[in-house]
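Run log // design_07
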């Protein structure tokens, strides 16, 4: 390895043996990371895109029809499934067609993380830099010493420590994306608190513009769109494109930042951090990228750590871009799949529904897991106990019933503080009385054997 300054040219000598060894390591690396050596990339222009027949993957026609029926009923507009870059399934609904444009919502955050990695690689910024280097002093109302703790990396990991309460207030929906200093207040030291907070993310575009001297759309076009054939436009921090452009980006992620031999992100450490746990607070979050398979996860708007995987029915190695109203990019290295879903709210808003609904992902994967003719449902869907809570919302209390025996329950508020704990509960039903809880959302943690189920309950006074 040779380290070169900007002003010098470094020409290391490689023997044939070292070249062979390097190529072997690269090839093995592709296999380790789940990237097929036969990965296909569509041409940058035109509509040609190679396909793989569903039959070659042993997909049952009737199960594909069932998947499409589910997608139609959940207000999907566009859906694609790629296998090693080739289209296996592509379906559009209603008046939406292949060239129709839709928004990514927060699924676009992952693209911003990729651009930040490219900017760092070009020497335009360092993610360890103070954010104020690019945003200017006083970009928040924090005390100067607290503002100076915030780095670009904290913006990428949702750990700025800025108060997200105002952004999630139903009384002030107009402030959800407020980036004025008056909306950016101190809550905790940077790096000590994870909170899904849109304004610090939106300011990453300002960081990129200040660092590069280019408009965010120009920077994206030059560094991401043109090399991959993607086409789209950022509008007020939200990316708009066709589903196929979204699929191209998913394929780029599957290929670890390499498009048909053209390396767009050379730093493997950055990509590793982007698509793996980036901090110790939310074990299912990288750099603006959601992760499956962790021991726990957090969701927007609440300070509660949920036990288990983000998407229990989905493969553990998924990393994903998730956006409001169920915009999805799922990258599945173990399968060589990229799954794209664009549309309206699919009804999966039970947890984190304000910005990143995840219940829909689970329902989608129950159907994706069953596409193969030889795959019985019971083998691919993780069994989770059924819990009924009614009435919900309620002001007096809730009847809780299930198909398993309870052992213990805990009631927590939105900040994860346990307000009530009841042990030695026997039977499969109990009544949880409201002992003066204020109106709002709370979380019921139900312990039964090895299962720990978390359900939302609502107080309406």
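design_07 sequence
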């Amino acid at each position: 390895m040779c380290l070169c300054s900007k002003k010098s040219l470094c020409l290391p000598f490689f023997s044939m043996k070292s070249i062979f060894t390097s190529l072997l390591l690269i090839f093995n690396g592709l296999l380790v990371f789940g990237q097929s050596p036969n990965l296909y990339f569509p041409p940058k222009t035109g509509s040609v895109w190679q396909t793989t027949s569903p039959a070659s993957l042993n997909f049952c026609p009737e199960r594909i029809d069932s998947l499409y029926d589910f997608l139609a009923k959940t207000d999907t507009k566009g859906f694609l499934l790629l296998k090693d870059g080739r289209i296996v399934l592509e379906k559009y609904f209603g008046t939406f067609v292949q060239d129709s444009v839709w928004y990514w919502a927060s699924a676009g955050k992952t693209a911003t993380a990729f651009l930040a990695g490219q900017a760092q690689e070009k020497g335009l910024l360092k993610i360890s830099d103070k954010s104020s280097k690019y945003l200017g002093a006083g970009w928040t109302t924090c005390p100067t010493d607290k503002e100076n703790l915030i780095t670009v990396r904290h913006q990428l990991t949702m750990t700025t420590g800025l108060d997200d309460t105002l952004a999630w207030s139903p009384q002030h929906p107009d402030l959800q994306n407020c980036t004025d200093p008056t909306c950016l207040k101190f809550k905790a030291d940077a790096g000590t608190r994870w909170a899904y907070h849109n304004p610090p993310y939106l300011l990453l575009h300002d960081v990129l513009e200040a660092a590069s001297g280019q408009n965010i759309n120009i920077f994206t076009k030059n560094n991401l769109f043109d090399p991959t054939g993607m086409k789209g436009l950022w509008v007020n921090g939200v990316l708009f494109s066709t589903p196929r452009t979204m699929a191209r980006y998913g394929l780029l992620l599957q290929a670890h930042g390499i498009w048909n031999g053209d390396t767009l992100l050379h730093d493997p450490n950055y990509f590793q951090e982007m698509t793996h746990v980036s901090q110790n607070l939310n074990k299912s979050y990288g750099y603006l990228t959601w992760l499956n398979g962790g021991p726990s996860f957090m969701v927007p708007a609440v300070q509660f750590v949920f036990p288990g995987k983000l998407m229990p029915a989905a493969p553990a190695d998924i990393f994903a871009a998730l956006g409001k109203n169920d915009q999805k990019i799922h990258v599945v290295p173990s399968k060589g799949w990229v799954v794209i879903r664009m549309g309206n709210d699919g009804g999966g808003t039970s947890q984190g529904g304000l910005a990143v609904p995840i219940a829909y992902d689970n329902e989608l994967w129950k159907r994706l897991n069953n596409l193969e003719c030889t795959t019985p449902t019971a083998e691919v869907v993780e069994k989770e106990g059924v819990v009924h809570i009614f009435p919900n919302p309620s002001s007096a209390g809730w009847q809780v019933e299930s198909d398993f025996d309870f052992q213990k329950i805990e009631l927590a508020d939105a900040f994860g503080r346990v307000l009530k704990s009841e042990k030695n509960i026997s039977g499969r039903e109990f009544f949880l009385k409201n002992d003066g809880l204020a109106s709002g959302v709370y979380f019921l943690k139900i312990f039964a054997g090895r299962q720990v189920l978390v359900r939302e309950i609502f107080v309406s006074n």
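Confidence is low (pLDDT under 50) at residues 1-35, 349-354, 377-383.
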